[in-house]
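Good morning C.,

I know you're traveling, so I'll keep this short. The sequence:
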Amino acid sequence: MQFTYYGQACFGVVTKEKRLLFDPFISGNELARDIDTEKVPADCILVSHGHTDHVMDVVPIAKRTGALCISNFEICGWLEKQGVKSVHPLNHGGQWQFDFGKVKYVNAIHSSSFPDGSYAGNPGGFVVSNDEDTFYFSGDTALTMDMQLIPRFFKLDFAVLPIGDNFTMGYEEALYAAEMIQCKRIIGVHYDTFGYIKIDKDAARAHFEKAGYELLLPGIGETITL
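The tokens, ready to paste straight into the viewer:
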């Protein structure tokens, strides 16, 4: 499985020959200025919640690529009003079998509104599972006991968790999350983009390593194999 980091909480995954893109926020991220949104591939776009730093580039990428957009009911309706043709709404606890695998929409503890301040439904995360890999993207979230439910249904190969603190859990709590979801390999996101969420990356890696876990922090634009 190929994983490409585009900054903030935006990343792409190639699985079952499909290109999945999560929470597209690139054009508004100064740290991602070398990424050309016109060249970012997507067969499917998954959106965790409605904040600008997760949806800014969804519409133009979806229109350019024709990607299927998967999110909650409210976000899918919002996308349709902006001319996105292909959407699939989910709600918390629900799942659907797509051609690239099963997607389950799970709880996140955060807030969610559209760029104009209107209601964007409740925030969530995703578990994506197929016969190649199974992974969890928590979306923006606090540490929550609901994470303990995930390993009851899925054996994770890796997970993507926010580690920047202030607006989400920090890396110390992300380690507790890794323990709850029973996943040793974590990719950290949602850090360094703004002053509020700048972190000491060496300290974060060391914190995980000391506990016997691996924290991966790929550079923006970097692709790694998992």
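Safe travels,
E.
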